[in-house]
Amino acid sequence: MMSWAVLLAGLAVFTVAGLGGCGTVEGFGKDVQKGGEAIERAAERRKPD
C-alpha cells in the first residue's frame, strides 16, 4: 500500500508543475523527472532498514 507521504509528495509536485505552467514538452519532462525524484526520496526515507 502506498503511504500517504509518498502520495501527497507526488500530488504536490504535479500541482506545482501545473501551476508553474511549463511552456514546452521539455519543460514538462523536467517537471515530471523532478516529481519522480521527490517520490523516490520520500520512498527511501520510509524504507525499513
TrEMBL record:
Family matches, as InterPro entries: Entericidin
GO aspect biological process, one term: response to toxic substance
Short name of one Pfam family: Entericidin
Entry similarity comment: Belongs to the EcnA/EcnB lipoprotein family.
Species whose genome carries this gene: Thioalkalivibrio paradoxus ARh 1
Name of the protein in its database record: Entericidin EcnAB
GO cellular component, one term: membrane
Keyword field: Cell membrane, Lipoprotein, Membrane, Palmitate, Signal
